[in-house]
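Team,

Forwarding the record for the chain on the shared tracking sheet. I've put the sequence and predicted structure together so nobody has to dig through attachments.
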Amino acid sequence: MASLNVWEPIMNRIGPERHQKFITRQFMAGNSPAVRIPISMAFPDKTELMIIRDGDRIIVEPKEKMLGDVPRIFQALGKYFVGGRPEFEEIERNW
């Protein structure tokens, strides 16, 4: 199954600080399954989060990308930038 995160290919090229790992276990918090996330990996307070089920993975990410990610995203896209748009070639037509 393809990843549902359109940013994933870009974010994977950004750098090792984006790839921290922490082992935890699922537990019940009331009637809901929950996991503990270390403070070093937590999102800012009141960040709306989106939860995506991708096969046997559960991905938690901000609903909106953060402005602080923009420079790293542009850096990752740099090698795909060709330096401008191709010129439009007008085709003569007989209407």
